Amino acid sequence: MSFSKSQDEVFAGCVSFSFPEMEIQKTAFHKQKISFPYAPGFFAFSVGPAILSAIKKMERSEFGSCGPDLIIFPGRGIAHPRGLGLASHLGVLLRSPTIACSKTPLWRDYPEPSLKKGAHVFIQGDNKKLIGAVVRTREGKKPVFVTPGHKISIQTAVGVMLQCSPRYRVPEPLRQAHILAKKMAETR
């Protein structure tokens, strides 16, 4: 995602990858006016419609008869004040497994995993349920913050994020979607 300079438009990029080969299969893009201004805890309401439109631009046959196997979103999933961040919200609407990955901490005081690639520390919610993980996708680099969105376990989410991060800190599907959205925003 990317925003216009005036912050009244959102540019959403969607990039489909083969897995585990991590080869780009198809891309889609959507630009939309923001009708619900951003408010903390309600990110899905301001950017969700544009993201859904970009996803819908992918041919149904691209995803098979039942939709995509997995969608990775920026932001939050179940590790959200209401338990329903962007990845959870859109996962329910799309009826697809989803994961959220963020470059910014989900928790004020979070445990640091070791500096080795693949190191991770699980985070528990108030009810002792696992709600996220701090994951080192690149040796010696800052971690990313992973949380399940919908229809996926935290253990599987961590494994997928590591497989989707062969060269960069940010998982390749998110990185490429951001590059596409930013490029589209700059050309408008």
Question: What topology emerges from the helices and strands here?
Answer:
Layout: E1 2-3, E2 9-17, E3 24-33, H1 43-56, H2 60-63, E4 71-74, H3 86-94, E5 98-102, E6 120-124, E7 130-135, E8 144-150, H4 154-163, H5 172-187
Parallel strand pairs: 4-5
Antiparallel strand pairs: 1-2, 2-3, 5-8, 6-7, 7-8
Total domain modules: 1
Number of strands: 8
- Return the string of H and E elements: EEEHHEHEEEEHH
Strand order of the largest sheet: 4-5-8-7-6
pLDDT averaged over residues: 92
Find the CATH topology: archaeoglobus fulgidus dsm 4304 fold
Distance between the termini: 14 Å
CATH class: Alpha Beta
Our Rg estimate from Cα atoms comes to 16 Å
Name given to the CATH architecture = 2-Layer Sandwich
Query: For this entry, what is the oligomeric state of its chains?
Result: single chain
Q: Describe the biggest sheet? A: 5 strands, mixed
